Amino acid sequence: MSKLSIITKGLIRENPVLILVLGTCPTLAITTSAANALGMGVAATFVLVCSNMMISAVRKIVPDKVRIPCFIVFIAGFVVLTEMIVEAFAYPLYLALGIFLPLITVNCIIFGRAEMYANLNPVFDSILDGIGMGAGFTLTILVMASIREIIGAGTWFGFPLPVLSDYNVPLLAMAPGGFIVFGSLIAVVNKITKGKEQSQKETGCAGCPSAAACGKGGGK
Q1: Is 70:51 a contact under the CB 8 Å cutoff?
Q2: Does 73 map to a domain?
């Protein structure tokens, strides 16, 4: 796989939210505001890139029996660092993200890439994978939050929009609106890719978008 493909696969082909359906909880919870979504995306991407880099660097010296606890320690360490930075330099964002900022530690996207990619690939490729997956996550939640904020509240990044600020659909800013927009985006991506990324004919390892990364693409 080329370096460019490693980065771009997270945007559509292996989008962590719309294709792999990971990180659903923060996706639905913080996408009521575009500013919150962008902040969460940047924070998660930072943790993803740093943890991928560290895990890939030590993958050959960490015993297999303790690799999971080691992964958790690395990820948690970078999450604490991120939380401290956000609290120090973007306190309103820190308050807005609330519990979902420290919960990056157990985000399925980060742990999944650590296990499926960084644990099996060189450092540079793992960094590129983190950037690509982080960009896909950030772009997805930003688009989702923009739709919900613009139509649901008539604002974008907190700024009132003409007409929409007076005529909006509050439902989209509520919890049901998150599921509506989330399902709609999944349907759109499925239509664009024509379902090729997760063909129903392929099951097990052969049907997993990350099969190539873990070396089990043969469906064994």
Answers
A1: no
A2: yes
